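plasmodesmata callose-binding protein 5: structure, please.
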Amino acid sequence: MSPKFSFSLLLFSLISTLCAAQGGGGGGGGGGGTIELWCVAKNNAEDAALQSAIDWACGPGGANCGPIQPGGPCYDASDIQKTASYVFNDYFIRHGMTQDACNFDNNAALISLNPSHGGCKFPSSKNGSGNFSGSTNVGLGPASEDLSSSSYIPRRWIYILMAINLLFSAQELLQVFDVSSTGSPKS
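Here you go.
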């Protein structure tokens, strides 16, 4: 066994241990860790579209828009992104946490980074009233992310280390098999 391959196995073992210690290993019969999700306004959404979606969600949509009213903890007349994000998330939590509940004419997206800011706290899918069903675009959050209560940064490093390990393994395999000739093992 080559030293590079041994290093890859050692690195993979370390990464696996770290993942298991942080709850990302999927052990214990539960099928993996829980990902918290929030529904927020997309960064490229137009202000008029966001305002229309807010008006609908706060009216016929049944979202709780009290916190975005003047004097509320999420009131910010100068930032329609933050206002729409709070409303979209409230609607998402109240209406089954499905992809359809986080669409708003394609002006909303699901993220895994807590968008709470200042005194404005966003409930997540984890502490909502049901389970999310569907695929997600996680990690596409706004620039003002609240990472204070998440393990996002350590997990990002774990994923980076896993990618490096895969690169080392792929390099080792390419050296074992001479890909440039017939594809058969080197003699």
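Notes: The first strand starts at residue 38 and ends at 41.
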